[in-house]
Design a protein that fits this description.
Layout: H1 10-42, H2 47-76, H3 81-104, H4 110-134, H5 144-172, H6 176-194, H7 209-222, H8 224-239, H9 246-253, H10 257-281, H11 288-307, H12 309-317, H13 328-357, H14 364-393, H15 395-416, H16 418-422
Helix pairs in contact: 1-2, 1-4, 1-5, 1-6, 2-4, 2-7, 2-14, 3-4, 3-6, 4-14, 5-10, 5-13, 7-14, 8-13, 8-14, 8-15, 9-10, 10-13, 11-13, 11-15, 12-13, 14-15
Length: 441
């Protein structure tokens, strides 16, 4: 009998909608929180001092993930993953609606933004490994690669579209993106509640809870393909964090305001969705490792070009190069961001598929937690690095230097991890086993 498409499975449809809705809400809040922090800080601080606050908000979101990720991954391998995801999404809904009320009543402050950002980090620490490990439990094994790819598309599409949506909504009313995010979280919670029972892993790790938590780190360290894919994203995005500087570019460099911020976030969204649609029609099948490496290099190049948009064109065209949606520097930056989003989608699609397919089910929660920690390290710490670096050398130099750094990291990783270059397809070994502990990198 021919294998069904993942969307033919009701549980997977509920899961996919929940994954997309949750990511949209999360990422819409991230960009709006960053804009509000920068906007409030700029009322009393210089550009560099306000950029430093953007760095601090990245740290506030990352610290809970750093502290809780290993524990959250262990929980996801021992407790019904549906209930973990439901609890985490409910907490995210509370955060969104709280910020909606504070913003609507004009009582939002920097401390409240930092506090709720940290609480969001707690929710994401539990939601990410539970959701990523849940997908393979919902579909027949023969369509698992397609299901994992679709899950990656949902996550990446939401992570790119969400900030663009947040920017546009914020331009309409400052409380609106939080209200919409709260609604998305409640929709995700309803979808998760509709998923029927799923089996827990049939094999359980032995040893103390702490030893089992650390097993996730050990597995990633011993599986060089997984380690290379995760760490490449960590260092490339950590350096190439152009999106963290978008509030600075929108307000002070390209001078297009909060509505222009929505356009800037929409450009990578359009690039990611375009590539995601192509993969839904014609999935990648060959030379997946090389294509991932090339896409990360393209991500770095697009980041550097975006950083140079105003410095390149303003000296040639004068003030008319900035300040409006169709100004040359703004259009140049939008094209660079489109390429950035498209390249990022290729990278995420390949990386998430390799990680899930090359990880046994009994380890997926803990390996997913390590992956979440690395991804969040690249995103939140990338925001912090960009903010701190911008405070030291200026936002343009920080963005351009970060893009060049991402290219250099890709070249280095291609040499350090030849397994990435040799990854031809997504097909895992016939009998996937946990590598023996005596293996080292």
């Amino acid at each position: 009998m021919a294998a069904r498409h993942p969307f033919a499975v009701a549980n997977f449809r509920y899961y996919w909608l929940a994954r997309l809705s949750t990511t949209l809400g999360q990422m819409a809040m991230v960009i709006v929180i960053g804009w509000q922090v920068y906007d409030i800080a700029r009322q009393t601080m210089s550009v560099k001092e306000a950029a430093f606050q953007l760095g601090l908000i990245g740290v506030a979101q990352f610290l809970p993930l750093l502290v809780l990720s290993l524990y959250a991954g262990w929980v996801a391998d021992r407790i019904d993953r549906r209930w973990i995801a439901r609890g985490a999404v409910a907490l995210e809904a509370f955060c969104a609606l709280s910020l909606c009320w504070l913003t609507y009543t004009h009582t939002v402050t920097l401390p409240s933004l930092f506090g709720i950002a940290a609480l969001l980090g707690v929710a994401r620490a539990f939601a990410s490994p539970a959701l990523s490990a849940l997908a393979p439990n919902l579909v027949p094994k023969e369509v698992l690669p397609t299901a994992i790819a679709l899950s990656a598309v949902a996550w990446q599409s939401g992570s790119i579209i969400g900030p663009a949506m947040g920017g546009y909504l914020y331009a309409g009313a400052d409380w609106l993106p939080y209200a919409v995010s709260g609604g998305l979280f409640l929709l995700a919670l309803a979808m998760l509640c509709m998923i029927g029972p799923v089996p827990l892993p049939t094999t359980r790790s032995q040893g103390s809870p702490w030893a089992q938590m650390v097993d996730g780190l050990h597995y990633v360290r011993r599986n060089r393909l997984v380690l290379g894919a995760i760490s490449l994203d960590l260092f490339a995005v950590l350096l190439g964090g152009a999106t963290a500087m978008l509030p600075v570019y929108a307000r002070d460099i390209l001078q297009v305001g909060s509505e222009g911020l929505g356009h800037l976030r929409a450009a990578p969204a359009l690039g990611a969705v375009t590539v995601g649609a192509i993969f839904a029609w014609r999935p990648l099948k060959t030379n997946v490792g090389i294509k991932m490496l090339l896409s990360v290099a393209a991500f770095g190049a697009a980041t550097a070009l975006f950083g140079l948009s105003a410095p390149l064109l303003v000296p040639i065209l004068g003030p008319s190069a900035i300040g409006s949606d169709f100004a040359p520097a703004v259009l140049f930056g939008l094209v660079a961001l489109f390429v950035l989003g498209a390249a990022d989608m290729v990278s995420v699609y390949v990386r998430q598929s390799l990680i899930q397919l090359y990880t046994p089910d009994e380890m997926r929660g803990r390996v997913g937690a390590v992956s979440t920690l690395f991804i969040s390290g690249s995103n939140e710490l990338g925001e912090a690095e960009s903010g701190f670096l911008a405070a030291a050398i200026g936002p343009v130099a920080a963005v351009v230097g970060g893009g060049i750094g991402a290219i250099l990291v890709t070249i280095l990783w291609a040499r350090l991890f030849p397994e990435l270059r040799r990854a031809r397809t997504f097909d895992p070994p016939a009998n996937l086993e946990i590598p023996p502990k005596e293996m080292t990198i």
